[in-house]
Amino acid sequence: MLTSFGIINYLSAQSGPWWRVFYDFTSLTKNIDAGLHNAMSPFWTTVTEMVIVGILFLLFYAVIGLFLVYAERKVCAFIQNRLGPNRLGPFGIFQTVADLIKLLFKELIPIKNADHFLFNLAPYIVIIVNFMVLAAIPYALGLHAVDLNIGIFYVIAVSSMSVIGVLLAGWSSNSKYSLLGAMRSGAQIVSYELSVGLALATVVILAGSMQLSVIVEGQRTGWFIFKGHIPAVIAFVIYIIAGTAETNRGPFDLAEAESELTAGYHTEYSGIKFAFFYLAEFINMFIVASIAATIFLGGWMPLHFGADNGFNRIMDFIPPVIWFFAKTFFLIWVIMLFKWTFPRLRIDQLLTLEWKYLLPINIVNLLIMAFIVLMGWHF
Amino acid sequence: MEEKVKDIDTDEQQEYIINIGPQHPSTHGVMRLVVSLKGETVKNVEPHLGYIHRGIEKMCESLTYQQIIHLTDRMDYLAAHMNNEVVCLAVEKALEIEIPDRVKVIRTLMSELTRIQSHELFWASYGMDLGGQTCYFYGLRDREMVLDIFEETTGGRMIVSYNCPGGVMYDLHPNFQKRVKEFLKHFRKVLPEYDDILTNNVIFHERTVGIGPLSLNEAISYGITGPSGRASGFSCDVRKHEPYSAYDRVKFNEVLYAEGDAFHRYLARVEEMRESMNIIDQLIDNIPEGPYAVKMKPVIRLPEGEYYQRVETPRGELGVFIISDGNKTPYRVHFRTPNFANLSVLNHLVKGFKIADLISIFGSLDFVIPDIDR
Amino acid sequence: MDKIQLAEFFKSLDSDLEVKEGKQYTEVTVPPSKIHSLASQLREKEEALFDFLDCITGVDYGHDLGVIYHLRSTKYQHMVVIKSRTADRENPLFDSVSDIWETANLHEREAFDLLGIKFANHPDLRRLFLNSSWGFPLRKDYVDNDMITW
Amino acid sequence: MRSIINYLKDIFLGVRSLLKGMKVTSRYFWSPRSIVTEKYPENRKTLVMLERSKGEVIMPHNDKNEHHCTGCGICQINCPNGSIEVISKIIDTEDGKKKKIIDKHIYKLGQCTFCGLCVKTCPSNALAFSTKFEHAVFNKALLIKVLNKPGSQLMKGVEQ
Asked: Contact, A285 vs A235, CB < 8 A?
């Protein structure tokens, strides 16, 4: 009820039609903040805002998770000449909701020889890490939970923590398959963290800032993938590959590798705890895609070429939120295409790919990018 | 069973033993592999069999020769036609019956279609074993067309039970030629796609080239036949060396490679699909007219003696050894199944490779578990 | 080599061998004690070169137990059938040929499992399909007490 | 230098092979016509089974409730796993002779392996395969069927 203060104030203060809000969320959030400040003390304002944001992110998490599960099943079905889910609702859109309900009601099978505390803790670590990264992503102009000045650094640092959850899950299950899967996952994520970091660093050089809002703003005259010439394209490709590897997906799903380790680190999990891992995989994919979209493809920034012209104004007509999600879902589709096309790598080949191919290319690429920026050859 | 129970704590080597199977996605059936690991490296693999042993050889001793046929379908269910054929050929040879040309050609055509569908399933499941799930659906999509051809003529899709001593059960369906030509046209179109997705894929190369190499001498000593043996350069095609049915009147190449690794075992199968299409091309337009079966006595009694007959199934050489004492049921039937012989090489091949390679090697040998267990 | 040459070849190896012209292949009968030496000779001799073991079949002849080997040469494509039988039903013992042909390992285990034929010097002679309390189902005197009737 | 060229060549060829694979899968993604899924329960009305499809063994009856089965029992002898049991009875015919006719032709669908020997060997063509394939029941006893309909008779003219 208190929040409606801000919205009312905002709407009454707004000059244009109500849907202008989709183009700029800054004044909306500011007005809500001001309204809350009028109603209560600064401490309680902060608490209320945190609760509101928390609830919004929980909802967002659930909706995106369910949608991505559905999308993956549909995408893989179309690739494989199948129909995919088609029973519940039109085109089976309620299939994942039904799956979720089923998973909620399923028994949580206790493992006799498992380390119960760690076993129960592991899924939450994975989920919490997801939330922490989601908070830093700019979804649209002004729709941004925290705009850290070290945004990229924070994203890299936090996302690499999810390996702890996976390792805990594998170790505490006291199962041989799980342990093998967890160890693979550990080696994999630690290695690919490097490539992710270096690929993002390439763009940081170009943008001159780590703050995500500044990076997006810097792409007003053109996305970084166009601005940075070939080095940016290479960095983008490397980021997508390394990001896919970091999410344990696609050709890099060694930690799960159902033809070798049945289900890898979450073999022993059941019910909603399994669902947490399952959802976390999809949210991870969303995170990787959204960061790639933000850093390389301009985030919520529409497709712009050069300074103010007719083309840019037509592009501006599409709201930034739609731009952001369109780019993200396109990248998610690409990552899904990887998974459903390629065979799985072996663990030593996976590390070879990282240390012998991606990392050297990445370092050279970084130098070239630094040189280009120094000489001012970028657009 | 006198199991060698290895106590992990007291074992100096600290072996890490995992069970792959009896229920596991990549054992393609009910089979248990006890794998000793050191890190991810396989030290020893011990197959435990018998989960679906049905005692077909014992059952055959109480059935007439016509009735045996329906049991052989259930050994190698992907090559049901060849399994039927081998018993029929043995019986016909024992009785010294001359088989009409039409039957020979029908059997050859059906055999080659069976080979194509079996290799397609191999392609599909091998891709899935290595993590490329889409392969499975593409392979099965095209395999369905062959199964439809089978169903139209024989009434069964996988378990065809189409042969009987003296010929085949029913005549070819009038649509047979048209359907086969449609299938060949479609398959020629999609086979390059198979190559794009899997054969030429760099990840697939990484996973298979040089994995589980088998030399020619080892292949012969271990009795590896079929495409797996031919990938090692072992010329073991029964169709060439001891032609049966109409194989003496068609031209085809025996696909031989020298490397003998998982990739060439795969490649041999893909190339065999092309050879099979050539064989079908040569025969499909000249199916001779005539009876589809010889009139046989209702009760077949084989003359006393021992009979051995071999055919080439998609997985290798299938032999049937019948000892007859002159009764209407055989005295002893023994099947020399290709998968059973091929299994013996598994431990030798996987030693020293990673656990992921175990799946790759196991898949490349293309096992059908009921054929091992019988 | 054709059948006649093969028969002569076997005579030259050991004059005691009982060589018979079967309907399909040359059939040689040897006593169990001589199997291993004969097998290694067949494998090694250049003119015969039986390097491929098709299958090993254990047979229960009612009173005797026997083993039948189908051997083939991949070079000359000729085939021979080696037979051997023993009257000892309690402890039928043959020499293992798994050191000559690796594939014999599993085939001999199968014969042991289903017929109770033992093979001396086999590296790993255990039941293959059934557990140790099971009888030997392919023997003619096997009675299945647990048979399920419909 | 050569090693660097080989290194770059490896990367180029590898990436090209991967892109080729992705081309195939993405082409199927964008072509909904290639979907081969059969929407089974919905298409039951239009589903056409292939005529020789072996669904179950039936005994065709004509409009007058007559069949061809003489009760000779050849199908029972030929069945490899005892799925067929022919129970016959002796009746007195009009002209006072004893005649053996079929009482019950019991067919155990749950045991049948669809080898087709009964249909093929029947001397009077009394048996046939139907293409019905939906046999799921909750009770195993329902899979034991009596093929001759109650009150049915041997068709006139079929040789005993």
From this structure: no
